[in-house]
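Entry for the shared binder. Reason: the reviewer on the internal report wants the predicted structure included alongside the sequence.
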Amino acid sequence: MAKNQPISGNDLARFSGPGTFMRLPSAADLSGLDVAVLGVPMDIGTSWRSGTRFGPKQVRNESAMIRPYNIQTGAAPFDSLQVADIGDLAINTFSLSDSLRIITESYGAILNHPVVPVAIGGDHSITLPILRAVAAKHGPLALVHVDAHADVNDEMFGERETHGTVFRRAYEEGLINPSKTYQIGLRGTGYSAEDFTEAAGWGFQQFLAPELWGRDLGQIGAEIRRDIGDLPTYISYDIDSLDPAFAPGTGTPEIGGLTTAQAMQLIRSLRGLNVVGCDMVEVSPPYDTSGNTGLVAANLMFEMLCILPGVAYR
């Protein structure tokens, strides 16, 4: 069966064509797919700046510039994997709890097929229902979580399911393996001295941003890869892990973050993991009218596609 390919810029100008990720074919039927790209356009779980409901559309728009071969690594994901964009989930604009239910149920249906789902958010609250569905299929997951924030609050304004409580709930519900959970890029200010240390007590391995300044993150990624082995792994990438100089269009920016080069080093070094799902979250286009944040997010999503199991290298 012929593999889907992004429309070439030599066949149709990049400023035209379908509004899918990398101008891939859209699909309503998941049969035969290896990877399903989908949008979760939601920002009702955020606590500061809104706008991530526009994230999927912006990331797809900026992805039109990306070509199908990774010249730097040799990865050719579309030569070996059947990839399509399956559109956006129909979340409930007025209800966070109902939207989380819709995401879990939608992912359950998606995972009835042997596909790797790749989500474009949306605020980080989308990751909890995704983990519920993915863990229901694969069991407790190893987790690579790249973020400025640990997202382990107990409650926010009395709510237990928000973008800042995701990984406490995931830990409590047994969705993730705490000793195989890695949080990379943490920084900023906190509500108490225990904001990060409590999760470390659960077994989370945390890499604070100041420890990473000026470092090649390939070595850390390689150590994580060796530690995880062949366990089913989920990657959750919050764009605010990057310094606002590189990605200002996000809901909760923190200075002193990762560079785009470090982000690429980290993702590329995770090649070989048994990745069963991933997401890119917290892109808020209204706070970056240049589109640069969406461009960075789209390219990092392509880098994640390039390390999925079964990708051919040339």
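Summary line for the report: Residues 57 and 239 are 15 Å apart (CA to CA).
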